[in-house]
């Protein structure tokens, strides 16, 4: 194994090496992505804050014994290494995307590509705002490359294919995830706290408006006979469903948001508390250290769902079925990364189906169930 030396590797301003860097290769998503990309023959470089853990991650993923690793412990330090070495694609699984995504994505430009799994609305909207910069730089930046965003965005795109823009869209995201024993983890804790702090949002007359966190609770009868409850929050799914459909009225719910009345009543005050930055980082820090027990996934499948309505009264409904939501996320990120590494994809900042088409959802292991 070799650490980067900080010399060489730069191939010119807009040219990149053939390497794919995985930031957070020891994490749950990062491990899955590293193993999948290594198995597909890509030159994968684990990036993280501990040399020992990166070497172990490389070995676990089946990378060769002399595989390169990069040691850097903050988005800023990682960005410096990217600028120096110009990898072709950087996968960011370190979380806290509202803070880390822009720093790392900007370092990939010009010419390099970027992928993350953000699904809080702040992080997704910030990354998408880099679109013009990315086009000029010849870089593809893909955010929301996970169950959250793709599983609903792809269904909306399928239902709207070849039709005029609908009037109203609702998307529901029902991830089913097995829990690994251990600490909750900083990345997931930051995502949950950021999502709560972002509150609720919907599109009305084509504009994003604030709504109550936990609004519009749904009781969903899933196609496999199981059921789930979900409620509204300001997710990347909302942004993507609006962009994919062009509908003026869009709402998004998630099964991660408690839909039962007592818990739902607590969400708005909790969200307001967490909008104070000091309280937010305190809460994320505490949550990250919470020890959790292993548990099987609560439902057989993860489901993305969309209901699309046109002004003439036409209504279409569809689902995307996947297995464990975390495994599917690793599958989506790996599929997007491989395509970008092989030169497929357009410059710009995108959600995954917007970048690479709705069938990416099946390439990554999902199955459409459309009416
Ligand atoms: N869109 C979706 O559907 C979806 C699905 C699943 C996950 N996610 C999101 O994806 C992210 C990753 O999830 P996960 O479950 O894989 O998290 P995780 O297991 O906690 O992994 C996070 C990784 O990031 C690394 N990391 C954290 N802080 C770092 C720093 N300052 N510098 C360098 N590396 C750092 C960690 O390294 P150490 O070993 O040093 O701690 C670890 O390897 C989370 O934000 C999560 O919310 C999204």
Structural description of this entry:
With 371 residues, the chain is α/β, with parallel strands linked by helices. It folds into two domains: 2-145 and 327-358, Rossmann fold, CATH 3.40.50.720; 147-324, Dihydrodipicolinate Reductase, domain 2. The protein is 40% helix and 23% strand. The protein has helices at residues 28-39, 51-60, 75-85, 97-108, 121-128, 131-137, 147-160, 186-198, 236-245, 261-274, 277-289, 325-341, 352-356, 360-363; strands at 2-3, 20-23, 44-48, 68-71, 89-92, 113-116, 140-142, 168-174, 182-183, 200-204, 207-211, 218-221, 227-232, 249-254, 291-292, 302-309, 315-322, 348-350, 367-370. The strands form four sheets. An eight-stranded parallel beta sheet has the order 1-4-3-2-5-6-7-18, sandwiched between helices. A seven-stranded mixed beta sheet has the order 12-13-14-8-16-17-19. A two-stranded antiparallel sheet has the order 9-15. Strand 2, helix 1 and strand 3 form a beta-alpha-beta unit. Helix 3 (75-85) runs parallel beside helix 4 and helix 8 packs across helix 10 (261-274). The longest helix is centred in the C-terminal third of the chain and has 17 residues, at 325-341. The structure holds NADP nicotinamide-adenine-dinucleotide phosphate. NADP nicotinamide-adenine-dinucleotide phosphate (NAP) binds at residues 24, 26-30, 48-50, 53, 73-74, 93-95, 117, 119, 146-149, 185-188, 191, 326, 329. Residues 24, 26-30, 48-50, 53, 73-74, 93-95, 117, 119, 146-149, 185-188, 191, 326, 329 line the site of NADP nicotinamide-adenine-dinucleotide phosphate.
């Amino acid at each position: 194994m070799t650490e980067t030396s900080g010399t060489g590797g730069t191939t010119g301003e807009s040219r990149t090496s053939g390497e794919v860097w995985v930031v957070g290769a020891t994490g749950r998503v990062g491990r899955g992505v590293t193993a999948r990309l290594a198995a597909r023959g890509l030159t994968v470089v684990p990036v993280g804050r501990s040399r020992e853990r990166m070497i172990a991650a490389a070995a676990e993923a089946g990378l060769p014994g002399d595989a390169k690793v990069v040691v850097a412990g903050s988005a800023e330090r990682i960005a410096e290494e990217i600028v120096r070495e110009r990898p072709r694609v950087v996968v960011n699984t370190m979380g806290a995307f509202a803070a880390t995504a822009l720093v790392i994505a900007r370092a990939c430009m010009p010419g390099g590509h970027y992928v993350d799994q953000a699904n809080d609305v702040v992080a997704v909207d910030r990354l998408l705002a880099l679109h013009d910069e990315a086009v000029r730089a010849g870089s593809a930046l893909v955010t929301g490359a996970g169950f959250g965003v793709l599983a609903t965005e792809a269904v909306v795109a399928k239902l709207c294919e070849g039709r005029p823009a609908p009037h109203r869209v609702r998307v529901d995201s029902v991830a089913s995830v097995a829990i690994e024993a251990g600490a909750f983890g900083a990345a997931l804790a930051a995502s949950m706290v950021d999502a709560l702090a972002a509150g609720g949002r919907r599109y009305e007359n084509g504009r994003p408006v604030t709504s109550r966190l936990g609004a519009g609770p749904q009781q969903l009868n899933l196609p496999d006979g199981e059921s789930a409850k979900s409620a509204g929050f300001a997710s990347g799914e909302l942004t993507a469903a609006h962009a994919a459909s062009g509908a003026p009225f869009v709402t998004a719910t998630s099964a991660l948001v408690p839909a039962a009345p007592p818990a739902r009543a607590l969400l708005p005050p909790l969200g307001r508390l967490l909008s104070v930055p000091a309280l937010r980082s305190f809460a994320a820090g505490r949550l990250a250290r919470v020890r959790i027990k292993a548990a099987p996934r609560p439902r057989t499948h993860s489901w993305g769902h969309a209901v699309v309505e046109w002004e003439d009264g036409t209504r279409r409904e569809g689902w995307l079925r996947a297995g464990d939501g975390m495994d599917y996320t690793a599958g989506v990120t790996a599929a997007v990364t491989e395509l970008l590494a092989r030169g497929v994809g357009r410059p710009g900042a995108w959600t995954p189906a917007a970048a690479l088409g709705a069938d990416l959802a099946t390439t990554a292991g999902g199955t459409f169930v459309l009416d």
